Task: structure prediction
Amino acid sequence: MKESWEGEFQHFIRNEDEADLLWFTVEMVIKEAGKKELLANPKILDIGGRQGEFSKFLNSKGIKAVSIDLLKVDHNQGAEQVQANIHKLPFQNESFNIIVANSVFDDLLYKFNYSTVIKEIARVLEPNGIFIMLASAINSHKVPELSEYFSRIDTPFTKNLAFSEEEAILWQKK
Result:
């Protein structure tokens, strides 16, 4: 597995403004899908969270959030960060009700065993929890486990965010 990318462009939230925009997007997607109850007590896992700016932003607002990344990063005050491989998430079953993967599943940057990753995400997500994939290279044709563990939710907002008809942004755990 490729653990880092040498290029200039990086897929991570770098500051509070970007974290705020991502949270706005997550809230919009969840509300439009009719799942507002998840926002009453959100427990969020940020996959590929790098230096933890998203979890730091959410934690500063009283929202429980954890960022996980394969790469070792410097501790970011206020962020809850975990360095681990997403093929074996270091969390108990049903630990989160919202999981966000922002530009993580990109075949050009990293290689994953998607079957294993989707099973792990399903394991740590509560029943009826939401899995949000933004700018993803995977879909249910490529990874049948998506449809095995999750139901696709399409809304006008998620269709605008998607790069193609096949890309689904929002998945609810069955």
Q: What stands out?
A: The chain has one domain: 16-173.
